[in-house]
Structure formats: structure tokens, C-alpha cells
TrEMBL record:
<dbReference type="InterPro" id="IPR029071">
    <property type="entry name" value="Ubiquitin-like_domsf"/>
</dbReference>
<dbReference type="InterPro" id="IPR023214">
    <property type="entry name" value="HAD_sf"/>
</dbReference>
<protein>
    <recommendedName>
        <fullName>FCP1 homology domain-containing protein</fullName>
    </recommendedName>
</protein>
<dbReference type="GO" id="GO:0005634">
    <property type="term" value="C:nucleus"/>
</dbReference>
<dbReference type="InterPro" id="IPR036412">
    <property type="entry name" value="HAD-like_sf"/>
</dbReference>
<dbReference type="GO" id="GO:0004722">
    <property type="term" value="F:protein serine/threonine phosphatase activity"/>
</dbReference>
<dbReference type="GO" id="GO:0090364">
    <property type="term" value="P:regulation of proteasome assembly"/>
</dbReference>
<dbReference type="InterPro" id="IPR051658">
    <property type="entry name" value="UBLCP1"/>
</dbReference>
Length: 208
């Protein structure tokens, strides 16, 4: 879509309002990537000071009005879940038992278990469930992070801090980390909410 920079769009807030009209994403939910290098100026900033070129492209991250995540228990109907497994073990008890008791599978699991070296960095809190989060495009936008087009603090998903604080009383969380961001973890160059993450892979914990 194209956003014309006319006389009525002369402040950053005006730009966000124009984006809202086109996408239904409210200004407070908008995360604009690639429009400028680094942090987007405050709402009162002038568009002319951004020195935008004609046809400038950028990415928008945000949830449109009406598409917010809803509690499934409050919905009248839910979509059907597609079972794409080769064998539907829920309907085929014989196939399930055959797979479970297959000696080749048992041997492979045993061998993998014996070779597995688990390094527990942060033990789980008693009575808390474990929530595993994929850091790529779930916690952070890793593309601008690894390319250096945005500072790490700007790569966090919208409402990340609020989300992490909300789940802390109920879950111990672990992040699935890829090697490409380990160097950012090691130098501590990550947003505050995930700055406690350890390089080897598991675990940040929010301060209580």
C-alpha cells in the first residue's frame, strides 16, 4: 500500500494516523521497521526531518483492531484442528501400540538419552509450569537484529515486557536460542526483558 505524504501528514503522529486508517492498527500498537535508521522519532517529530525518499519502503508490525487474541473459552466456535500426521494414533490403538513397542524406536531413544548432556542453568521453581518460547520472530525480530539495521532494543516484539511480566507468576520460561544471536547475548546487547538469557541456550528469569 502507498501512504501519500501530503500537507496533512507533517508529523510522525500524522503518519501513524494515516497508517491506522489504512491498516486498522492503532498507533500505540504500531512497530515501524526500516523507515529510518535506528529509533523512530517521537510523535511530535517532523516528517521532513526524516529525509524520506520517494517510494521509501518499511515494515509494519501490529495487530489490527478486532483481531486481538481472544480467550478460546469465550468464543462460540473454534476452527477444526487438522491432523496431518501420517498415522492417526488417536483412532488407531493398534498402530499406536506397535509404534510405542517398536524395539528400533526404543533403542534410538535410549541411545539419544544416554548421549544427552543437560546443563541446567536455572532450575525450575517448584510448582511452576514450563513455557518454552522460540526467540526468532516470537520474542525478537532477528532479521534486523543480526543485520544491524536496528538496535537490539528496537527489535523486541510489541508488548514483550508486559507479556513476560504477566506470565512470570505462573510459568518458568525458557527460550529456544539460535547460534546467530548468541554473540548478542554474550555481550549483553539485548532488550532488558531478555538480558538474563544465558549463551548456552536456556533461561532468563524476571526479577520478582
Amino acid at each position: 500500500m502507498c501512504i501519500p505524504l501530503v500537507d496533512t501528514v507533517n508529523r510522525v503522529f500524522d503518519l501513524k494516523a494515516a497508517i491506522h486508517d489504512l491498516t486498522k492498527v492503532p498507533p500505540e500498537r504500531q512497530k515501524i521497521l526500516g523507515l529510518v535508521k535506528g529509533r523512530l522519532p517521537p510523535d511530535q517529530g517532523r516528517i521532513v526531518d526524516l529525509r524520506l525518499t520517494p517510494g521509501k519502503k518499511f515494515s509494519l508490525i501490529g495487530t489490527p483492531e478486532g483481531d486481538e487474541i481472544k480467550d478460546p473459552s469465550q468464543l462460540e466456535s473454534l476452527p477444526d484442528v487438522l491432523n496431518d500426521l501420517d498415522v492417526d494414533f488417536s483412532d488407531n490403538l493398534a498402530a499406536s501400540n506397535a509404534y510405542k513397542n517398536d524395539q528400533r524406536n526404543i533403542r534410538k531413544v535410549k541411545e539419544a538419552t544416554e548421549k544427552l548432556d543437560i546443563n541446567i542453568i536455572h532450575p525450575l521453581r517448584p510448582g511452576k509450569k514450563l513455557l518454552v518460547l522460540d526467540i526468532d520472530y516470537t520474542i525478537l525480530d532477528t532479521k534486523p537484529l543480526t543485520s544491524g539495521t536496528l538496535p537490539p532494543a528496537e527489535c523486541a516484539r510489541p508488548r514483550l515486557h508486559e507479556f513476560l511480566e504477566a506470565i512470570y507468576p505462573y510459568y518458568d520460561s525458557r527460550l529456544n536460542v539460535t547460534l546467530q544471536i548468541v554473540r548478542y547475548i554474550e555481550i549483553g546487547d539485548l532488550p532488558q526483558s531478555v538480558s538474563g538469557l544465558k549463551p548456552a541456550g536456556f533461561g532468563w528469569r524476571l526479577n520478582s
